[in-house]
Structure to design on (151 residues):
């Protein structure tokens, strides 16, 4: 089971020293040796604990990181950490669709969210009377579900 770190924020991947006699820390990225010293402008390894601290993440940092700590008793391998870029596309723009529903009649509306990583969650809101103003939906007879269906 891997842990996830999202990009576009300062990232810290921790590997704390639980034992006093750690001699060496090694990091792997996507199964290959990763040397933080090769990227001093954006990542440092904290002395004495092995944690990686990224000052700025970009798409080249995405991958699966894993720390190894070695001492005279052997090597311990930490759980992998996945660093991934987060993004979301925009909905197609256009004029709002006007739907007329008689009071008391049922109405259902599906929403397909735009492509994103990780997958987007859909929240329904009401457009206010003024441009740029929105209202939450707080009515006992209006519902939505995890599949973004509104009824």
């Amino acid at each position: 089971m891997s842990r996830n770190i999202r990009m576009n924020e300062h990232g810290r991947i921790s590997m704390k020293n639980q034992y006093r006699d750690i001699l060496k820390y090694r990091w792997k990225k996507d199964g290959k040796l990763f040397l933080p010293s090769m990227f001093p402008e954006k990542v440092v390894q904290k002395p004495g604990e092995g944690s990686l601290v990224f000052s700025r993440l970009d798409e080249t940092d995405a991958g699966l990181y894993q720390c190894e700590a070695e001492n005279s008793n052997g090597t311990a391998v930490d759980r992998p950490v996945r660093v991934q870029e987060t993004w979301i596309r925009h909905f197609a723009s256009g004029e709002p669709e006007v739907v007329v529903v008689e009071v008391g009649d049922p109405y259902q509306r599906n929403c397909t969210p735009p492509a994103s990583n990780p997958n987007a969650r859909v929240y329904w809101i009401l457009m206010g009377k003024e441009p740029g103003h929105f209202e939450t939906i707080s009515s006992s007879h209006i519902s939505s579900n995890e599949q973004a269906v509104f009824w």
The two ends are 37 Å apart (CA to CA). The domain at 3-85 is CATH 2.60.40.10 (Immunoglobulin-like). The mean pLDDT is 81.
